[in-house]
Gamma-glutamyl phosphate reductase (Ottowia testudinis), 880 residues
Amino acid sequence: MNAPNVFETMQLLGLQARQASRAMARSGTAARNQALRELAALLRANVQALQAPNQRDLARAREAGLAEPMVDRLKLTPKIIETCAEGCEQLAAMPDVIGDIVGLKQQPSGIRVGQMRVPIGVFGMIYESRPNVTIEAASLSIKSGNACILRGGSEAIESNKALAALVQQALESAGLPREAMQLVPTTDRAAVGQLIAMPDFVDVIIPRGGKGLIERISAEAKVPVIKHLDGNCHTYVDDPCDLDMAVKVVDNAKTQKYSPCNATESLLVARGVAARFLPRIGAVLAAKGVELRCDPESAEIFKKNEPLALDGQAQAAIKNVVNVVPAQEQDWYEEYLAPILSIKVVAGVEEAIEHINRYSSHHTDAILTTDHGHAQRFLREVDSASVMVNASTRFADGFEYGLGAEIGISTDKFHARGPVGIEGLTSLKWVVLGGGEVRG
Amino acid sequence: MNAPNVFETMQLLGLQARQASRAMARSGTAARNQALRELAALLRANVQALQAPNQRDLARAREAGLAEPMVDRLKLTPKIIETCAEGCEQLAAMPDVIGDIVGLKQQPSGIRVGQMRVPIGVFGMIYESRPNVTIEAASLSIKSGNACILRGGSEAIESNKALAALVQQALESAGLPREAMQLVPTTDRAAVGQLIAMPDFVDVIIPRGGKGLIERISAEAKVPVIKHLDGNCHTYVDDPCDLDMAVKVVDNAKTQKYSPCNATESLLVARGVAARFLPRIGAVLAAKGVELRCDPESAEIFKKNEPLALDGQAQAAIKNVVNVVPAQEQDWYEEYLAPILSIKVVAGVEEAIEHINRYSSHHTDAILTTDHGHAQRFLREVDSASVMVNASTRFADGFEYGLGAEIGISTDKFHARGPVGIEGLTSLKWVVLGGGEVRG
């Protein structure tokens, strides 16, 4: 039983993080940017030194029988380290939002009232495998003036410790407290339970990982959680629609990568264009081996195999659409993260919105249309973190949105929604500037 | 055992609220403003009709032995009803924020990305006594395009039912769903347990009441809670400071009303001005019978009773400062809501900030100073929902801040902080406007 030790370890980490967060909140823009540039330099100077601990993690992972693609994700290659260093430099070059005062307005009483952007304090992050997340999280924490407690995967513990030491060195050399970034030093699972239950020391928890992990953490946490559950993203092909564009965008949304949370998992097609559109997208997806889970109406269209203006290759490919299987109710909820797409024919934009609001995980949903009114209605009524018109759902990403970096993607409505960047790690407090006013 | 009935009642309320929230999200500005003006008219037309149910509540309260000040809070006087009606009209006249798109920016990929303000969906509100809160909550809900489920105090159930009927009539006459505002029809306590545990139907809970109630709800809720715990507000008199202004502001902050959460409960005074300031404010507070819970240094100053430039009345008053009692550690945490003030002498702005960040409830804290640097530091470093310079803490209020109305005051950092108006009942979702872009 080392539970009491874990308790004490985590309490100490929490106390130190809270204290460090005060110093970070006081710190100047220059010091925080210096720490980021210092960290970039240290990462580049330590490409070789990072290999030894990383190799130990890899060896342990292989011994434990981890599949090679999973082992791959643990690797700290020179290229990955350079990407981390560049990320730190990009953050350093971004404007500082801490201390911004927005909406300062004169009130009838004489006082001026506005809101100041301040760090949220301390965030805890729980993540798996890729050790570069340690640098991403630490650098966002530094830029936003927070302190953080990071709990990486046990399979990457040696790599994470080596990276964390560089972060602390960078903080110190910029005159900031080392404890503004702390790595949970133990792989004991009890540490996670402690981390999510210290409201005095930790203001918010950001879990990154499987749905099971996030649901468990959300249920047990005693502080707010920035949740990223699943990405059951929809693309709706409207009537009227530029179908050439729709083929290109749906193809990209589904097949550019299968594993990201912003890949499209469900295709809705307006009845008016279904017979023309489905065979065309079917040909493209069949050529890539995508399984189609179809409602009866779309299945019927694929079966009819109507004459198409397709080139020879696509004509051949459409013959390969043997992979049409009937969709079950569960398919409309599913995040496949695989070459599978559910397909449903709907009457029009209204039914599409209804279907999406019912089955979507509220992550990202898109309409492809040439109708302005339909676009406006979809934007307004679809209740998801990102709602798109004529663009691939794959764009739902902090970098693509211009946030500079992303600590996660929230499927919640509360506080931060969608890609969470620096602002998601801050809060707005009210500031009142008076000249001795009193209330009458 | 009517628990199953309560369960079914609440599930039905939730389902209807969720459906109504979709219609509200779709609704136009004009319809929502019309509902608000209609409600104002109905309130004025029903001043007399509201008296009968209100009298029944009052009679029941008196029978139950409720103290007369508590009975008073239940009263729906013509003046209170008129204030409610005016509140509805003021909200109707305010600009609509729903559908606003902010920060729409062109990205290198070609897409334009911004954030659209949308209703949060359904909020549940749990409150006590004053039936006018029913109108305040319902009108904010209508303006912000949400649906709400309201659970008022059992002592005001008849008044609340009568008011809720008017709200539903106003909604209907504006072509909006009646179910956009529903009152929990039972006084069974199990209903509260249900209301806070329906994440499918309710997006956020706003409790208003005692600290015990709010802590219990926060601990048990399965959805986010906009918490207003306590208001242990500080006023810090800095060195240098305009002491005439400080006497006026501290007097107002403490004594203008004792019961509001934004009243000052703790006075910090810089050592450099303590000997000059404390006797002056002591005289003012003594004249009003305020008990002073003092640290040893401030107690010593009061005892010395140094010569002061006071008028005769104040000279007499200061002799009445018999009410100096030694502060205990617990006093620094206390929200008295009474004619009691804790007082401590500090070295300067740094110690004041440290004390406040340690003991404050993060509600509202003020510095009174003529030093620009001290003011800037206090604004930046005090970790509270409202931070003020040279103003009475009593200004921390949605109306005074220009929010038009206030559904509560949040002492949390997450989502909404400080006075919560319409924007606190909304969320920002990302919108992406493309022209067929795909991700490379």
